[in-house]
Design brief:
The complex is a heterodimer.
Chain A (H helix, E strand, L loop, with lengths): L3 E4 L2 E4 L5 E7 L7 E6 L6 E5 L3 E2 L7 E6 L2 E6 L9 E6 L6 E2 L3 E5 L1
Parallel strand pairs in A: 2-11
Antiparallel strand pairs in A: 1-3, 3-8, 4-5, 4-9, 5-6, 7-8, 9-10, 9-11
Chain B lengths: L2 E4 L3 E3 L5 E8 L8 E7 L3 E9 L4 E4 L8 E5 L4 E6 L8 E8 L12 E4 L3 E5 L1
Classes of the chains: A mainly beta, B mainly beta.
Chain lengths: 107, 124
């Protein structure tokens, strides 16, 4: 199985800050990576697919980059509604796997 | 509105059987794979497997194959996840999700873009 390691596990940030989350894959996965946002008590919500393509309706302050084994999710100018947990997922091979999550909390 | 609506929370005893459901509406249910995902505090999100409602083709994660059964009744647009004998370790939130729906347009990805609200299963 492909392992995805996210860092950091936890981010404390203020409204207006920029935050970057990294996802490293245990083997190359080209650009077959997605990012999800999950708020407490809710299902995950797709933000980005193919490493850098924004899902329809997702604000442009979210951006993704990377290929191969290293990927990043950047949230520029954090808004109150962005405080949540973020997960990466690889879609290169089976079984599909997720990172362990990064929680973004209000400082 | 495109949505997946899951069945309600369940509380079961070890050894009991269980079948939870995921009903799709607002789209062509038979045309898109449905995936099942388990979420626990300890292991996070885990992909369990998927089913194609059009022909019931399934694919399981090795971690879950033989432990659960994924099925579908396309006549009523419902996908199922079932256990023959529950264990305490099956306690989790379970989500269904469409794979690569892309609002019904040609989809360049197979990420999970429509999710059900989740079904909490407690085995105790």
């Amino acid at each position: 199985d492909i392992q995805l390691t996210q860092s950091p596990f936890f981010v404390s940030a203020s409204v207006g800050d920029s935050v970057t989350i990294t996802c490293r894959a245990s083997q190359a996965i080209a650009s077959y990576l997605a990012w999800y946002q999950q708020k407490p008590g809710k299902a995950p919500n797709l933000l980005i697919y193919l490493a850098s393509t924004l899902q329809s309706g997702v604000p442009s302050r979210f951006s993704g980059s990377g290929s191969g084994t290293e990927f990043t999710l950047t949230i520029s100018s954090l808004q109150p509604e962005d405080f949540a947990t973020y997960y990466c997922q690889q879609l290169n091979s089976y079984p599909r796997t997720f990172g362990q999550g990064t929680k973004v909390e209000i400082k | 509105e495109v949505q997946l609506v899951q069945s309600g929370a369940e509380v079961k005893k070890p050894g009991e059987s269980l079948k939870i459901s995921c009903k799709g509406s607002g789209y062509s249910f038979t045309s898109y794979w449905i995936a099942w995902v388990r979420q626990t505090p300890g292991k996070g999100l885990e992909w369990m497997g998927k089913i194609y409602p059009g022909d019931s083709e399934t694919r399981y994660s090795p971690s879950f194959e033989g432990q659960v059964t994924i099925s579908v009744d396309k006549s009523i647009s419902i996908a199922y996840l079932q256990w023959g004998s529950l264990k305490a370790s099956d306690t989790a939130m379970y989500y269904c999700a469409t794979v690569g729906y892309c609002s019904g347009e040609p989809c360049p990805h197979d990420a999970f873009d429509i999710w059900g609200q989740g079904t909490m299963v407690t085995v105790s």
